[in-house]
């Protein structure tokens, strides 16, 4: 199986677009959101991150089957 760099770079670019959208659309509210996130315990942030990872993997799996 050969690694598809074009698909990988496309997915990476899409991830950057999705990550940048909240900062562009809600620039005025982002400092408040980031402050609120910084006050959360690390364990809660890890759970949130793991949930996002699992949701992303599920989406990829469902699209690829």
Total beta-strand segments: 0
Helix-residue proportion: over 70%
Number of helices: 3
Characterize the main sheet.
none
Question: Which overall shape is indicated by the principal axes computed on the Cα atoms?
Answer: extended
- Report the average pLDDT across residues: 94
N- and C-termini, Cα separation? 17 Å
Q: Class by helix and strand content?
A: mainly alpha
Radius of gyration: 15 Å
Encode the helix/strand succession as letters.
Answer: HHH
Please state roughly what percent of the residues sit in beta strands, choosing from under 5%, 5-15%, 15-25%, 25-35%, 35-45% or over 45%: under 5%
Low-confidence stretches: none
Structure description:
The structure is a single chain. With 65 residues, the protein is mostly helical. The chain is 82% helix and 0% strand. It has helices spanning 5-25, 30-38, 42-64. The model has no long low-confidence stretch (mean pLDDT 94). The protein contains 3 helices and no strands. The longest helix has 23 residues, at 42-64. It is extended, with a radius of gyration of 15 Å.
Key phrases:
mainly alpha; 0% strand
In short:
The protein is an all-alpha fold and 65 residues long.
Write the layout of secondary structure elements.
Blueprint: H1 5-25, H2 30-38, H3 42-64
């Amino acid at each position: 199986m050969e690694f598809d760099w074009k698909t990988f770079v496309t997915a990476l670019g899409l991830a950057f677009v999705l990550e940048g959208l909240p900062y562009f659309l809600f620039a005025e509210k982002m400092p408040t959101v980031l402050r609120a996130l910084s006050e959360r315990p690390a364990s809660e942030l890890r759970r949130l991150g793991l949930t996002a990872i699992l949701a992303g993997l599920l989406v990829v799996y469902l699209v690829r089957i």
